[in-house]
Write a structure and sequence with these properties.
Order of helices and strands of chain B: EEEEEEEEEEE
Number of strands of chain B: 11
Largest sheet of chain A: 6 strands, mixed
Oligomer: heterodimer
Distance between the termini of chain B: 37 Å
Radius of gyration of chain B: 14 Å
Largest sheet of chain B: 7 strands, mixed
Helix content of chain B: under 10%
Shape of chain A: globular
Number of strands of chain A: 11
């Protein structure tokens, strides 16, 4: 399997703190995406970073990509209780229409 | 807004039953996907389709089949449900082509939680 892995598996922080999640993958990619999933719901797209980009921002989200290490990180700044969710990275499989998802990081933000 | 609609949020079926999970998207997307999600295993791709009547196996196709007779609809079929198919099933769609619409983003439905007794 080419499945990615997120680290840590679970993270618990206080409201206002920053949350950092990491993702590693195994093969060459065109892009890497981060998704959020509230409990029992579908996934919602957060941000996409292309293989020729090193960093991208969207609101309180900051994503970095290191293709030499085959890794990415998602930083959520000034976290809120509403950020409590699972976060997944997804990588495309070059030459196909497929996307491979990691196992996710469960984030809990305590009010 | 893009909408991906899965026909049932919760289903309970018995072992051996035939199960249909339906998914409809309203954005004229070429690509559609079926994933299953299990604790500790993340999302695993069952099948995907890049055009009407076209399908390709994902990582775990055994025990499943799919149908795409119309562009907006992608069905997942369990010919004979088994208890190890108890899971959350997620449908997704995406655009494929040139131009600004090709963001690579997947749009997900709310999921169908299937329990096989």
């Amino acid at each position: 399997s080419q499945q990615g892995e997120e680290d840590p598996q679970a993270l618990s922080i206080q409201e206002g703190e920053n949350a950092t999640m990491n993702c590693s993958y195994k093969t060459s990619i065109n892009n890497l995406q981060w998704y959020r999933q509230n409990s029992g719901r579908g996934l919602v797209h957060l941000i996409l970073i292309r293989s020729n980009e090193r960093e991208k921002h969207s609101g309180r989200l900051r994503v970095t990509l290191d293709t030499s290490k085959k890794s990415s990180s998602l930083l959520i700044t000034a976290s809120r209780a509403a950020d409590t969710a699972s976060y997944f990275c997804a990588t495309d499989v070059q030459g196909t229409y497929k996307y491979i998802f990691g196992t996710g990081t469960r984030l809990k933000v305590l009010a | 807004d893009v909408k991906v609609t899965q026909s049932s949020r919760y289903l309970v079926k018995r072992t051996g039953e035939k199960v249909f999970l339906e998914c409809v998207q309203d954005m004229d997307h070429e690509n559609m996907f079926w994933y299953r999600q299990d604790p500790g295993l993340g999302l695993r791709l069952i099948y995907f389709s890049y055009d009407v009547k076209m399908k390709e196996k994902g990582d775990i196709p055994e025990g499943y089949s799919v149908s795409r007779e119309k562009k907006e609809r992608f069905s997942l079929i369990l010919e004979s449900a088994s208890t190890n198919q108890t899971s959350m099933y997620l449908c997704a769609s995406s655009f494929w082509g040139r131009g600004a619409r090709n963001t690579g983003e997947l749009f997900f439905g709310e999921g169908s939680r299937l329990t096989v007794l």
